[in-house]
Design brief:
The complex is a heterodimer of chains A (170) and B (361).
Chain A lengths: L7 H9 L15 E4 L11 H11 L4 H15 L14 H13 L5 E5 L7 H16 L3 E5 L13 E4 L2 E5 L2
Parallel strand pairs in A: 1-2, 2-3
Antiparallel strand pairs in A: 4-5
Chain B lengths: L1 H8 L1 H14 L2 H30 L5 H27 L1 H9 L4 H31 L4 H25 L3 H17 L18 H8 L10 H25 L13 H17 L2 H21 L34 H7 L24
Helix pairs in contact in B: 2-6, 3-4, 3-6, 4-6, 4-7, 4-8, 6-7, 6-10, 7-8, 7-9, 7-10, 9-10
Classes of the chains: A alpha/beta (170), B mainly alpha (361).
Chain lengths: 170, 361
Amino acid sequence: MGENGAGKSTLMKVLVGELAPDAGSVTVNGLLGYCPQQPVVYERLTCDEHFELFGHAYRMTPAMQRRSARDLYAALGFERYAATRAAQLSGGTLAKLNLALALLADPAVLLLDEPYAGFDFDTYLKFWDLVARRREEGRSVLIISHFVTDAERFDRIVTLRDGTAGEETK
Amino acid sequence: MKRITEAAGLAGPLLVRRFLADYARNPVNLLILVLVPVAFVAAAAGSLAQLARLLSGTMAPGAAVQTVTAGWAAAFIAAIAAYFQVRAARSADRRLVLAGLPAGRLAGARAVTGLALAVVASAAAVLTLAARTGLAHPGRVLVGTFMFAVIYLAIGALVGALVASPVNGTVVIFFVWITDVMFGPVFGSPTRPAGRVFPTHFLTMWMTDLPSHHAGRVGDLGWALAWTLGAAVTAWAVMTRVTRTARAPRRARPGSAGDQLRAAIRAGLTDWGRNRVLWVLLAAVPAVFIVVATALGPGQPHPADLGGERPPGDQDGQPRIQCRRPPRLHGPDRHHLAGGTGRHVHHPGLPRRRPAPGAGR
């Protein structure tokens, strides 16, 4: 958690390898799922084609990828947009696709940058269901946000100021 | 595990298919890819061949010059296609790499996609050329045009990696292309060794079937192939570089000679870069010299009399242009040419100097 410009997104970009750190190092052991703050997709590819492409990137078999995509469509409620191009999706549905691409391979660590900014309340609750299920299965989820409304959903809340981790409120 | 490996192996063709779909689903992309080469060859090939003959007196026949226009058209549009591929999908491509796709494989898929677009652009240009003038050497035209496109794919990818703004990127590509065309062997001198630095110099020589005389044992075709292969490898390396995961820069040991040298260069460049006047002067000083020299220097060729025997009856005292073989240029003549006494060398508009006694004898 942190104010605008505190360095939250920069920290996450360094963790996933999108930015090089000025100092220190990041060791990644296993698979990371990364959901950037702004949806990063191919505008003219459909949701299904995105899942297929990212399934290959995650080295999933076609069957695994299709099963996981089906579950995510159902969990986030956007299966009817499976054949719709990303550029034609509404902001909320695009945010769902953006999040689903990070969840596709069910990685051990999920890094989500403001993942629910464009969600309606119903989708917001579905999102927390997904997170809770992964937490129960022993996965780690790191969420970046300006503020925290449901503090009980988090195990730890760390405030970032000027790029430095400050107090831990939980 | 085996199934996962197989899935990873299939990623290449799938990536290419998806990238091509992403490109082709924008109808403007396809229109430009085909329309620009067709319009360029159909409308400009004949005029450019005439212009080349007027400007440089090129030894290549007009049909051969028109053949090269197919390469020029395919090259430009291939560069533009590669630029927009690299720029537009850069974030999404990086996300795929962050998800685990090897950057080299992604770059390979992008390069293959670019080659497929180059084939389309080349085919459009060659078919138009065939309809316009016919093809004397179809194999050479097809291969040459495709090689033009591959070389410019790399240029487009390189510009895409360095220039973020589409307007600036397009202008940079156009600048490279127009320089290559206008200073290349068709409009310029085909035999000058300085032409070797242009990306399609040897390829143009090969397509127009004119020897450059400076290709060495490799030959024009050999150098053209080397440029093409080098361009393809460069395009792949550039695309890999821009999409791969960021790593912490390797730092020299604090206080070491390398560390101090790097810090000094960095500080010097920063200081130099903040001196705006110096930036202006760097561009202005050479420009002023060139403009002033062009404006105030003699604009026309003028005669120089090197002395020697005059034809009988030539008494008007006007300078004469004389052509002599080098062995007949005697010491006194060279003296005049070097601006010695100026007894016979006279530039219009400058006062005649009185010759010194005995000078030039």
